[in-house]
Amino acid sequence: MNKDWHSDHFCCWQCDQTLTGQRYIMRDEQPYCIKCYEDVFANSCDECAKPIGIDSKDLSYKEKHWHEHCFLCNMCKVSLVDMPFGSKNDRIFCSNCYDQAFATRCDGCGEIFRAGMKKMEYKGKQWHDKCFCCAHCHAPIGTKSFIPKNEDVYCAPCYEDKFATRCTKCKKVITTGGVTYKNEPWHRECFCCSNCQASLAGQRFTSKDEKPYCANCYGDLFAKRCNACTKPITGIGGAKFISFEDRHWHNDCFICAQCTTSLVGKGFITDGTDILCPECAKARLMAANT
């Protein structure tokens, strides 16, 4: 060290034992005998807890140290010297043991994801590319569109076949706004009058024997007819009508045949097919008697 000592003065900095003719180690520009150096400065092995002497390799990872022969996988005990390894909970593992114990696994096949493998993820689950498949046809979905149902995913064609709403009339899938009638779904263009086939979507309609009809067809086919104007009395929209002895009138048509005053809510007298207010009936009777 470019310094001179008497032989009995060249001593260990820790224990003062002479170092003349002995192996020694310098630390912070001071000499130490082997024993003192190992007692004071040597690291303890994380595996066997013994000091790592100067004649042993000191292998370190994250402030931990091992003898070369103690640097082993925590599970299979294979040497990790010059080998790839992983760490978990302050323990070290060879790559195979680490993968088996801690690597993420495919929710389809249960196998691990290895380096370079493509991973598909959806709602916290992950699959190998080949395992991300339609639950019905089992074809890989890849980058194609899919539809979730409960815990499964389906390609679009399979989802339509199994779950999509179908029109009661044409049985095809309803992809955009349809019509519900008696708890059954219809395409707007398929929900038609049973007689004239005109679309009933957004229109007034009524039903007969479980079949829908537009107002015009229902009136022509099934409604009573007004005894005055002969037009159908449909009642649609709240229209009121009057019935008497198997004859029927719209409220507006129920008028005196003589003076045309409304007889709704009033007394009236019939004369053949005519209905008359009491005054006109009296006048007609007097004229007939003279």
From TrEMBL:
Residues annotated as domain LIM zinc-binding:
43-104, 105-164, 165-224, 227-287
Pfam families, alphabetized: LIM (PF00412), LIM_FHL2-3_N (PF25076)
Note the PROSITE patterns from the entry. LIM_DOMAIN_1, LIM_DOMAIN_2
Task: Give Gene Ontology CC terms.
Answer: nucleus; Z disc
Q: Which UniProt keywords apply?
A: LIM domain, Metal-binding, Nucleus, Repeat, Zinc, Zinc-finger
Please list the GO terms describing molecular function: transcription coregulator activity; zinc ion binding
Answer yes or no on keyword Endoplasmic reticulum: no
Task: List, alphabetically, the InterPro entries matched.
Answer: LIM_FHL1/2/3/5_N, Znf_LIM
The answer to whether UniProt assigns keyword Amino-acid biosynthesis to this entry is: no
Annotated compartments:
Nucleus
Q: What is this protein called?
A: LIM zinc-binding domain-containing protein
